[in-house]
Design goal:
Elements lengths: L4 H29 L1 H9 L1 H15 L5 H24 L6 E3 L6 E2 L2 E2 L1 H18 L6 H25 L3 E3 L6 H21 L7 H18 L3
Antiparallel strand pairs: 1-4, 2-3
Protein name: Carotenoid biosynthesis protein
Organism: Mucilaginibacter roseus
Keywords: Membrane, Transmembrane, Transmembrane helix
């Protein structure tokens, strides 16, 4: 069956955006892994996150007030969760942010809200496309996937000065909190009821899984 012109344009647009995601993560992997370029690539992490945010915005169908409302809710929920964690240890445990994520307000990087949005949106869209009819299964499986990603992120984050744990050990409590915070945010995603989105968001999540797994297993 011949696809309508509008559908073809969407597919081409999605393909280009996915290519950019994969390309920049591949370059980032080499940049992080090589000592000669490591400091430079640590410095541009905030710009990388902003680029990924722009890609997600471009890929989303109907970027309207509902989309931006969702973005703001997740951004501030993520920022507040991290503030509670850093200043009280009640969430995630006792840790402090380094310089890699950029400018901080109240000791929390402004980019952390962007990062939470990217993860939640990408996971939410992947679960949306997974053909799971029960939304609670989508929420739980999505939260488990985000927790797996955090397991991969943590050693890399410590090595590249994203953040550091007070006692030089990653507490199991961190992963428990990640799971429940992720569940809450994915519940918010579900309640916004976005139309079925393209594969760009899931491609970002899968690329990040591969990226952090590669830095753990093959650090060059």
């Amino acid at each position: 069956m011949e696809r309508p012109p509008g559908m073809m344009q969407l597919l081409k647009k999605s393909s280009v955006l996915i290519f950019i995601i994969v390309l920049f993560h591949a370059v980032g992997y080499v940049g992080f892994a090589l000592p000669a370029t490591r400091n430079l690539f640590e410095d541009i992490v905030p710009f990388h996150l902003l680029l990924m945010l722009g890609i997600i915005v471009l890929s989303h169908r109907e970027v309207d007030n509902r989309f931006w409302s969702f973005y703001l809710i997740i951004y501030f929920a993520g920022y507040v969760a991290e503030w509670i964690g850093v200043h009280t240890g009640a969430l995630f445990g006792y840790y402090a942010y380094g310089s890699t994520l950029g400018v901080k307000v109240l000791n929390i990087p402004l980019m952390i809200g962007v990062n939470w949005f990217l993860l939640v949106y990408s996971t939410g869209v992947l679960m949306q496309r997974a053909k799971l009819k029960n939304r609670w299964l989508r929420i739980v499986y999505g939260a488990l996937l985000m927790m797996v990603l955090d397991v991969l992120i943590e050693p890399v984050a410590i090595q590249f000065d994203y953040w550091h744990w007070r006692f030089d050990a990653i507490p199991v409590y961190n992963y428990v909190c990640w799971f429940f915070v992720s569940m809450f945010m994915l519940f918010v995603f579900e309640n916004f009821g976005f139309k079925k989105q393209s594969w760009v968001g899931p491609a970002l999540l899968i690329t990040q899984l591969v990226f952090f797994a590669a830095l753990n297993i093959y650090p060059l």
